[in-house]
Design brief:
mainly beta, 25-stranded mixed sheet, nine-stranded mixed sheet, 9% helix
Length: 535
């Protein structure tokens, strides 16, 4: 009896300890009246949760929304906040201390802010370590959540810039098993400083610019470890944006991620300045700019450069004819990348456009295929790939990844010609060709201009024959060098299409003779000039 009593007391103590350690949640109910733990929210600025009002006056506010007053729910303390309900012209703002951890639990939220970010994280603790975060957005189990948000265009000392419907000035993480739909007029989810990590949840993000963006140059890491992510740029005339973007790194470790760039802009499905790696998961990226994926990725991937843009069903089958990948693209794209754990090294694969397919699919991605009747068999290599506007791309562009370089970005803003939402490469080429560098730089001290610059980096995109005579080249490489076979400096330029007056450059030819066999190795993951079999 005594032993039973001791066990009972021990169990009670353990239960009490577990309850004590469970985080206390503050309940925020959205609606015409906003309540906190059942009481109307206070407007006392000294309270840890309080309400203020603001009218946005930045230049991007459309005329019909000027004068709209937003209700701002400001959270200044660390803790867990469970949010439910519906509200329009309302923002949740986190302005916590540098030692505070904050958890926003979205549990059936329909939140709209038409002139600013719907969720704006100004401050909280930031570990500043990739994959770590102290501000967490949790998607509650079984919950469906909708965030419709805008942005503020002009940053001041008092008001930092928020480009996305969900924006953060510190590292941010997503957890949970619920769903989140984001409808953004500019960027979807943007972390200005620090890192963005996705550890769970079901996401559908459609944005006017980058649906997911980590923007701290050379620092930010965007990591996808688990969950389901569909991120797509809205197909709006004159729009642009990458499917997923980082000014630092992108790392896929698991889950499913479909990333679609704007179909009419020169952007990539998966774009990073410092490198993108695929270590696991089912990953799809599509766009009209070549953004390389690191060859050091732990999981094999396939990059396809089409000779003509396609919005058709793309199916990849193994040697036995079994489909291992199938995606029905919603828009026309030139570059398509994908990765699944089923890809194997040194195995021959076939690629088809169209055909008759049956099975389960989500957002165009087939997760199980019960039958497939092949469509048009495709080849790769054996020529040059066309870019939009019919311009030809040189087959040999040197070592694409020699310097970890990125493809040239097209000019934006005031430098972008008005082409009705479509890039006209002929017009673009004429614009570049009209630039007279002698006149432009006549008063510039080039020694000062180039001081401290990495000339190897600056010269990417130029062929060595653009800079040296044949005699000079032979003096460096020897008399027997094949001058015509030499590539460029890194193969890809960072500016003006790989050189003033030049065309945007793509992948080097994947095979001298066109072939229907797509054989993956660690060193060979990119296939150019993908097109229908020539009869």
């Amino acid at each position: 009896m005594k032993k039973f009593f001791v066990l009972l007391v021990s169990a009670a103590l353990l239960l009490t300890s577990a309850v004590a350690e469970a985080p206390v949640e503050t309940l925020i109910q959205l609606g015409d009246t906003i309540t906190v733990n059942g009481e109307a929210i206070t407007e006392d600025a000294a309270a840890p949760i309080h309400l203020t009002h603001a009218v946005e006056t930045h230049e991007d506010v459309p005329e019909e929304l000027q004068g709209v007053s937003n209700r701002i729910i400001t959270i200044t303390d660390g803790g867990s906040y469970r949010i439910s309900g519906t509200a329009t012209d309302t923002q949740i703002a986190v302005k916590a201390g540098s030692d505070d951890d904050v958890r926003l639990i979205l549990d059936g939220v329909d939140l709209t802010c038409r002139t600013h970010a719907a969720i704006a994280v100004y401050s909280a603790r930031d570990p500043r370590v990739a994959g770590e975060y102290a501000v967490t957005i949790v998607l509650a189990e079984g919950s469906e959540n909708l965030i419709t948000g805008s942005h503020n265009a002009a940053a001041t000392e008092e008001e930092p810039e928020f480009d996305g419907a969900i924006g953060s000035q510190v590292s941010l993480g997503f957890e949970g098993s619920g769903s989140l739909q984001v409808d953004a007029d500019n960027e979807g989810v943007e972390v200005a400083y620090g890192h963005l990590t996705i550890n769970g949840g079901v996401f559908h993000i459609e944005a006017g610019d980058d649906p997911l963006n980590v923007s701290e140059d050379g620092v930010g890491v965007l990591t996808v470890n688990d969950g389901y992510l569909y991120s797509a740029v809205k197909n709006a005339q004159g729009g642009e944006g990458d499917g997923i973007d980082s000014n630092g790194w992108i790392v896929f470790n698991g889950g499913t991620a479909i990333n679609l760039a704007h179909p009419a802009s020169q952007d990539g499905g998966i774009d990073s300045d410092m490198g993108s790696s695929i270590n696991g998961g089912v990953i799809v990226g599509a766009g009209n700019m070549y953004d390389p994926i690191e060859s050091t990725s732990q999981q094999l991937f396939m990059m396809l450069e089409f000779s003509e843009q396609t919005d058709d069903l793309v199916v990849v089958t193994d040697a036995a004819g079994t489909p291992i990948f199938a995606y029905d693209f919603p828009y026309d794209y030139m570059y398509i990348a994908f990765s699944t754990p089923e890809l194997k090294e040194n195995e021959p694969y076939s690629v088809y456009l169209g055909g008759e397919i049956e099975g389960e699919q989500q957002d165009g991605l087939y997760t199980s295929i019960t039958s497939y009747t092949p469509g048009t068999l495709l080849t790769h290599g054996g020529g040059v790939a066309e870019q939009r506007g019919g311009m030809q791309m040189p087959a040999d562009m040197g070592d694409m990844g020699a310097m970890g370089g990125q493809p040239p970005e097209m000019p934006t803003g005031d430098m972008q010609p008005d082409m009705g939402g479509m890039f006209d490469f002929n017009a673009m080429q004429q614009a570049y060709a009209s630039i007279d560098l002698n006149e432009l730089l006549k008063d510039t001290d080039l020694n000062e201009l180039l001081s401290g610059k990495d000339l190897n980096d600056l010269m990417t995109g130029f062929a060595i024959t653009d800079l040296l005579t044949e005699e000079q080249i032979k003096a460096i490489f020897g008399e027997n060098v094949d001058v015509n076979a030499l590539g460029g400096f890194g193969g890809m330029g960072r500016g003006f299409g790989g050189g003033f007056g030049g065309a945007p450059r793509g992948m080097e030819s994947s095979a001298e003779v066109a072939t229907t066999q797509f054989i993956l190795t660690r060193e060979n993951t990119a296939f150019s000039n993908v097109s229908a079999v020539t009869k």
